[in-house]
Amino acid sequence: MKLDILAFGAHPDDVELGCGGTLLKHIAAGRTVGIIDITRGELGTRGTAEMRDREAAESAKVLGVAFRNNLGFRDGFFANDEQHQLEVIRHIRLHQPEIVLCNAVNDRHTDHGMGAALISKSCFLSGLRKIETQLNNQQQTAWRPRAVYHYIQDRYMRPDIVVDISSFIDKKTEAVRCFKSQFYDPSSSEPVTPISTKEFMEFVHGRAMEMGRIIGVTYGEGYVAERSIGVKDMFELL
Question: Does the pTM exceed 0.90?
Answer without folding.
Answer: yes
